């Protein structure tokens, strides 16, 4: 027995009579606190998934969330930064895929319950400062996107009405859409009535992809016979702005926690995430390459303004206008719902009548603020880059990595994963700082 080696899980610091003072040994393992999948289906930790749906539904919701107005800007991004931007798009796609997977894993670390939002993740990781920072950057997305959509709708509708008495100007048309959206938004209580937008978004993505591939190819002989088409390999000084625009086009991770929450088998989220974003990347290449090859530096944002006037262009304009209008309540509603809880605008606290009055005042105020910015800054392209730089560069590339490291540790990860995380932070910082600078300069030029 004297040669037998024993292990003791505690350090004995003192023995006084029959009392033994113990303290847990210092944790030296480099493992994660636990595997996030261990918390799945735990009734004391995970959410109720009894009414959850198929992974295919989450896959479709992810694609519809990511593929939107951003995919129409990529030909223009190539026009400003050159063919080398395709490599940049690949790297950004890899980084986004990785960051989106670990962000959902962060929902299961650092607390007694699963987080429900990205804001909760940041607050759990960095306390109130993290919550405030997340709120600030998320607000740029949740309020910036509706502003951008109102600008786009005004441009699209005025273009469709060109040459008729309904050509009243882009800003007046934006105001019409703001009012038309605000009325149902004031009455909206939940997102249940907006589930049809996923089906609509799928149709829009398929139709616009086909049109933006076929129409430029059809226009190739005619356009290049009458125009000098200029292509560049790499324009380095425009890469920071390109990162911001690509970040905008790949944005959508604010709703990924909700997509994962609706899955009956959430352990398949990494597969859904990686395959879904891979399909988005394929769609982006299909749209970006023909547009830039045919129109070169003259490729516009959105790209359908470059294709010839005709049924294809008209269908594109109508479908994207309907789709973005359907998405406005989702973005601004997410912000409104969270703030209403913070401000105490609930039926439980105020009663039905007062709750509706305060809710109506608050939401009308939100829509008026979005409308004022949309009317004062009616420049779609630089606005998109600005929101991509400030909102999407941080939410896609920076916050997921920092929160994941904080909640799970850094030293327990392989060196290649740390390097990949550092690359993500670099891209996010470049997009945030230099992308914002470039976007502000473009806005100044637009007014000058």
From TrEMBL:
Bilayer topology: Multi-pass membrane protein
Keyword Membrane: yes
Keywords: Membrane, Transmembrane, Transmembrane helix
InterPro entries from the UniProt entry: AA_transpt_TM (IPR013057)
Subcellular location: Membrane
Pfam families tied to this protein: Aa_trans
Chain segments annotated as transmembrane: 59-80, 86-110, 131-151, 171-187, 199-218, 271-295, 315-339, 360-380, 386-405, 417-437
Domain Amino acid transporter transmembrane: 56-439
GO function terms (MF aspect): L-amino acid transmembrane transporter activity
Primary subcellular site in the record, as a coarse category: membrane
An example Gene Ontology CC term for this record: membrane
Family (UniProt): Belongs to the amino acid/polyamine transporter 2 family.
Official protein name in the record: Transmembrane amino acid transporter protein-domain-containing protein
High-level lineage: Eukaryota, Fungi, Fungi incertae sedis, Mucoromycota, Mucoromycotina
């Amino acid at each position: 027995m004297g040669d037998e080696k024993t292990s003791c899980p505690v350090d004995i610091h003192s023995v006084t009579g029959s009392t033994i003072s113990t303290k847990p040994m210092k944790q030296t393992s480099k493992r994660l606190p636990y595997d996030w999948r261990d918390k799945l289906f735990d009734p004391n930790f995970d959410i109720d998934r009894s009414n959850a749906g198929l992974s295919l539904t989450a896959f479709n919701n992810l694609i519809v969330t990511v593929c939107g107005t951003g995919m129409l800007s990529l030909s223009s991004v190539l026009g400003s930064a050159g063919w080398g931007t395709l490599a940049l798009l690949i790297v950004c796609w890899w980084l986004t895929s990785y960051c989106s997977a670990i962000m959902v894993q962060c929902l299961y670390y650092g607390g007694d319950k699963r987080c429900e939002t990205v804001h909760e993740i940041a607050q759990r990781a960095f306390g109130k400062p993290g919550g405030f920072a997340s709120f600030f950057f998320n607000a740029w997305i949740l309020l910036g996107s509706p502003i951008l959509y109102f600008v786009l709708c005004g441009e699209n509708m005025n273009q469709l009405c060109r040459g008729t008495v309904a050509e009243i100007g882009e800003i007046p048309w934006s105001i019409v859409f703001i009012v038309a959206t605000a009325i149902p938004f004031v009455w909206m209580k939940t997102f249940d009535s907006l589930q049809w937008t996923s089906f609509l978004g799928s149709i829009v993505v398929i139709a616009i992809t086909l049109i933006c591939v076929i129409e430029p190819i059809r226009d190739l002989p005619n356009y290049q016979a009458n125009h000098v088409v200029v292509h560049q390999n790499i324009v380095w000084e425009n890469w920071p702005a390109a990162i911001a625009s690509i970040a905008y086009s790949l944005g959508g991770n604010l709703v990924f926690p909700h997509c994962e929450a609706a899955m009956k088998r959430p352990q398949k989220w990494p597969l859904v995430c990686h395959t879904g974003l891979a399909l988005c990347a394929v769609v982006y290449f299909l749209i970006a390459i023909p547009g830039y090859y045919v129109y070169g530096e003259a490729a516009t944002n959105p790209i359908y303004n470059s294709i010839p006037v005709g049924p294809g262009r008209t269908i594109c304009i109508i479908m994207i206008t309907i789709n973005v209008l359907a998405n406005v309540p989702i973005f601004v509603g997410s912000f409104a719902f969270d703030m209403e809880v913070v401000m105490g605008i609930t039926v439980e606290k105020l009663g039905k009548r007062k709750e509706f009055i305060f809710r109506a005042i608050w939401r009308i105020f939100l829509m008026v603020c979005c409308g004022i910015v949309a009317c004062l800054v009616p420049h779609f392209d630089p606005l998109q880059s600005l929101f991509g730089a400030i909102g999407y560069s941080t939410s896609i590339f920076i916050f997921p990595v920092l929160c994941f490291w904080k909640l799970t540790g850094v030293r327990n990860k392989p060196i290649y994963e740390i390097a990949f995380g550092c690359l993500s932070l670099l891209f996010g910082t470049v997009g945030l700082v230099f992308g914002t600078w470039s976007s502000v300069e473009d806005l100044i030029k637009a007014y000058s």
